[in-house]
Amino acid sequence: MVTDGTKKPQVSVPTPPPPWKINLQKYAESRALELHSLQSIIENRVNSDYRSQKNKRRRTTVFDNQIARKGCRRKRQKLGIIDKALAKSGLEENHQKKLPRCVHRRYELKKNPENGFCTSGDVTKRLRTHVWHAKWFAMTKLWGYHLPLCLQGRGKGSRALLKKAQTRGACT
Amino acid sequence: MGTEFETIEARITSMLPQLQSECGILQRMVYKNKNQHRRSSYFQRLLKVRRDLRLLQSANMEELVSSCLLVIKGDRPKQKLHLLGSLKRRKCDGDKHNFMERLLGAARLLAEMVEPILKAASEVSVLFAQSFFMGFSVTIMALLARLRVLVQQILLDVVSLFNMVSSLSISKQSIKITHNGIEVFRDFYPVSDDFVTLECVWKSDKFILLERKHKTNDESHVEDSGGNVSVQTSDVNYNSIESFLGDDQLFHERVEADVVAKEDPNHIDDMNTDLLTGSSQIDDKETRYSDQDTTKAFINESSQEAGLPASSRSSTNDKLQSCPKKVAFVSIKNLTLMRHKS
Fold it and tell me: More exposed terminus of chain A, fewer Cβ within 10 Å: N or C?
């Protein structure tokens, strides 16, 4: 009771709001002495070595958290989605047709065993470099193996076109 | 001593608003730059500095400092008595801590605040070295420099105030309260407990707070208190009773003036005085006799005030008033005789 009676309601003086704009030069110059003393203390602490520590450096793309967001569409996510679909259903003709060639070729390249040969759809064996050779050369099946012909092109380039034209007599 | 605490008072009352304004600027800087810098380590350090400043604001330093100054100055005796009496309560008495314990907590916080400020400044100086975000880093460095100086100076002043108040709370003292022309002496006797003194030691780049516990000597305390009790109370009581007996006419005139100007706040004041005497009985068990005398004096006053409005029976009232005075006088003699016997 005594404390309640004697206590006066202490109305705190309202603090003025912080300034909307700060004149940077005046602000720093008015605190020059404190800044110098603080600078000398930090210099003593750091031994005048102001490099940032290596374990505290960050990548420049650390701000990019779009990969975590599912709503955003990007190439990376498309690739990821396709890979997931492949992993689930395995190779099927429908999916095989829909895949872009580079993706399909990469997937075929992953199927190489460490030793020996892998087999294609029919029972002919494939070389380890089959994926690359299939890109650049015409392939035939000889002696149970799927082999490149080692002739230039696969019949779709300019030389092939010229040959076809000459045989049919299109020129003159 | 007087000039010392006056300079401390002037200094700390000028520094606390500065600290408030710097805190406001820091919060605005953090608010504006949070989106751009929030993952970086220097900004995490800044957030820790801001957290400490918010804690310090919630500690309410201005109230603590003003109550310390009331105890040291003594220009408001009632509040001084109330504050000194609150020091006798321990922590486990209730949820509230007394102002000395809160001041000790604030001093500990102030001592802890310097290290995050220095770490934040060293991180921001790396920005300076790389000349990244120059406007931001210049402003933050200036802010932290001023904050460091303010925090350490306030810590020194708080420590010296704490030591002054603790030395006052240890010593015995009598406080004079005058209320409507009536003088009352209240005696304050300290609890014989351990007390704490603070000390600041400068270590390489900041102050470190040291707390030392001391014990009061119980034997000398008891002897001194016993001796002083009889002397002070006897002097006080004799003076007051003689003043009553000697100045009858003046007292009557004053009472009539009070009757003419009777108002509600007078009643409120009387209630407050009664409450104060009640609390005094609870607080000071050693001084029961002196308090009983003062309560009897109050009872006499209240009876006189009750009797006064009937002005037609002035003669009978005078006779009635003379009787309690004699009784009071006789009782004091009896008390002094009992003390001499014991």
Answer: C
